Input
Amino acid sequence: MKKVILAVVAVFVAWQVLDFLVHGVLLAPTYAATQQFWRPMEEMKHGLMIAVCLISAVAFVLVYSRLVAPKTMANGLQFGLLLGVAWGISMGYGTYSVMPLPYNLALVWFLGTLVEMTVAGLLVGLIIKE
Output
């Protein structure tokens, strides 16, 4: 159980840092240029964003810890990469298909999600071992 909790914390922290880099730094100019699509900063639901990230980290770690065997760094990396493709394609290109967003936003959302999930997979693979 300690390893699961440690993995949840590690994944959550990694995602928070990577989200800041992707959304707060890399995509900041794109978000400013498309501000008509987003809530003003003061209306954003920051607590909800943190809760969503934490719940997602818990789910990610629990799926890995309960369903992936054997628990190795290679399997953790593969797990993260596969979920990164699945979630990233939905986040980036699924959204792009229904909203008039710039293409670079779809691409960076896809690649950012792919990187975040792959890092998370690496972390669970390193922390939760048999």
Observations:
- Residues 2-26 form the longest helix (25 residues).
